[in-house]
Every structure is written in C-alpha cells, then in structure tokens.
Amino acid sequence: MKFLEIDGLGQVSRVGLGTWQFGSREWGYGDGYASGPAHAIVARARELGVTLFDTAEVYGMGKSERILGEALGTERDQVVVASKIFPIAPFPPVVRRRAAGSARRLQLAKIPLYQIHQANPVVPDSVTMRGMRSLLDDDRIGAVGVSNYTLQRWQQADAALGRPVVSNQVQFSLAKPGPLSDLVPFAAQENRMIMAWSPLAQGLLGGRYGPDHRPGGVRAANPLFGTENLRRVAPLLDLVRATADRYDAKPAQVALAWLLAQPQVVVIPGASSVEQLEFNVAAADLDLDEDSVTALTAAAHSFDPVPAARTLVDGLREKASR
Questions:
Q1: What pLDDT, in 10s, does the model give residues 25-39?
Q2: Domain range for residue 315?
Q3: CB-neighbour burial class of residue 101 (10 A; exposed 0-12, middle 13-18, buried 19+)
Q4: How many domains does the chain contain in total?
Q5: How many angstroms separate the CA atoms of 226 and 222, rounded?
Q6: DSSP state, residue 213
Q7: Mean pLDDT taken over the chain
Q8: Disulfide-capable partner of 22 in 63, 67, 82, 216 (CB 3.0 to 4.6 Å)?
C-alpha cells in the first residue's frame, strides 16, 4: 500500500474504501450484508493496509456510519474515518449537532476528517466554516474537508476557515478527468488531498459494457451508459484494455492506477465482497509508465460524452423503435 502524509490526518492510504453502498438497498446491500460481508470487507481492508474509510450521514440515512463504526471495532480510533455533513441549513449550531450525530453513529469521540458534502448555493462558507472551526477548536474533528467544490469555492472555504481545508472529494476518473485542469495542480502545490469518488465510473471503466451490452439496474440511469456514450467511450476503453494486457492486469485496475499516478490523489472505490476489495487494493502496486499515463490522459480528454438530456431522448427513441 502507498500513503500520503496529510496535515491533521497523518498517513492516508492511496486506496481507501467508500462505504456509501453500506445499507443501500438499491444496490442490494441490505441487512444481511451489513451484519456479514461488510464486516469481512472492513477487516480485510485493515489487513491490507487501508487507513481511509469514507462515509456520510446521508448514506443509507445513517446506516452506513453505523455499519462502518461497528465493523471497525476497536480499530476505529486508528484509521482515518471521513464523514460528511449534508449542507441543509448549515449554520454553526446545526453543524455541531450533526457532527455529534455522526460521531455517535461511528462510535468515535473525534471524527478524523469531517467534510461538507457539497457547496450550499445560498449559505456561504463564511457561515458554515464557523461551525467547522469550533469543532476543530474543541478537538471534535481532526481536519476539515469539502466535497464537490470548484477550485474557487475551495479557496473561499480556506479563507473562511482560517486554516487549510485539507481535502476535496470530487467525481474523478478516466471518464471524468476534469479535476486534472485545476484541482489536482492546486492539491499538489498546497499538499492537499483529492479524493476521487466513482473512480471506475460505476463500472464503465471495467470494460464489460458496450453499445450492444448495456447494464440494467441503477447503472441504466447513468447517462454514461447511454448507447451513444458507450459508442463514444469505445476508444478509451480499448486503450484501457490494451494497457491492462501489457501489465497483466484488469482494466479497472489500470483505471485506478491512472488516478494514483496523479499527485495527491486517493481513490475510494466501494466493494461488495472481499475479493473486489483485494482487486481494488492491488491497483496501488500497479505503477504505470509515463507513456501509458500520457496516452490514457489524452484518451480521457478525447472522450466527449453527450449530455444527459440527449441520452434520455435517445433512450426513448430506442424504446419506441422496438
């Protein structure tokens, strides 16, 4: 396992475990999963050196936090647990109450990394960060992070907090390479951390799907899996597969390794089984050469997906023609 050293957090594993599916029935993660596989996955993650575990109060409406806290057991104080406040009325007293609720569900006296789940369009960070700063001052959290913030909003959050906001959790993958333009350089310059959520684009980068083999279930609603986008992403997926063949790896591992080749980036894929967790963690040991990284980056920038509205219209037309 490889690590980043982040102020206020210590050593953070480059591959973490995202737990948003814990307790989410739409992914088939029900009560049986919570009491069995989830515990086995978390235990194996610790054996493999994973120190970063990401959750949020809205994941399963608190279930993810409870499951994660129980699964970590006596090791919950030895890792970087990252949770998030959903910014509804994020005034300082509300921030403090909601942090206390997350800490209680996680069975932690102190949350190592407490993040704002997304920017509130009405309430400025100058208000919200007063609550976060009081949590820092009272040693209730170890560091402050944000999620889904633009670079400008991240810098405004910095100024509002009066100290570094150490991380920004954003959608980032070969299919969504936008953070490369500004967030990654900023993190590299300032020793911050980019946490890549959906690093495999909900499985798109695993190479299983194409125009003639589209997924069902939750993935079917993702515009990336529309017929036209599956056509457009084919050159990128072909390169990912070819790179995987050269390294005797799997396409999804190459997609994760490309992210880990970027400075100050960690990935937080989910895992539905111990085997999937082990598969993801193995990507930390896959060192892509510079030419491979450059080629994959160029292919990522060349992928130009159609917007969600067109995907919806195309889907309706496909159904009408059947």
A1: 554 555 666 667 888
A2: 3-321
A3: middle
A4: 1
A5: 7
A6: B
A7: 90
A8: 67
59 catalytic per annotation? yes
Instruction: Say if strands 10-13 and 3-6 run parallel, antiparallel, or are unpaired.
Output: antiparallel
Identify the burial level of 122 via C-beta atoms within 10 angstroms of its C-beta, where 0-12 means exposed, 13-18 middle and 19 or more buried: exposed
Residue 199 has pLDDT above 90, yes or no: yes
Count, residues in the chain: 322
Pairing outcome for strands 80-85 and 17-18: unpaired
pLDDT in tens, 40-57: 999 999 999 999 999 999
What is the tens place of the pLDDT at every residue in 289-312?
999 999 999 999 999 998 765 555
| Beta-bridge partners for 227 | none
**Beta partners for 194?**
168, 265
- In this structure, what DSSP letter does residue 223 have? G
Global pTM value: 0.90
Catalytic residue among 33, 59, 149, 209: 59
At 93, which CATH number?
3.20.20.100
Pair of tokens at residue 276: 């999937």
- Joined together, the tokens standing for residue 319 give 């159904």
pLDDT single digits (tens) 64-113? 999 999 999 999 999 999 999 999 999 999 999 999 999 999 999 999 99
Q: What is the 3-state secondary structure (H, E, C) of 238-275?
A: HHHHHHHHHHCCCHHHHHHHHHHCCCCEEECCCCCCHH
Decide: 21 and 29 in contact? Cβ < 8 Å.
yes
What sign for the dihedral angle of Cα 102, 24, 311, 269? Answer: positive
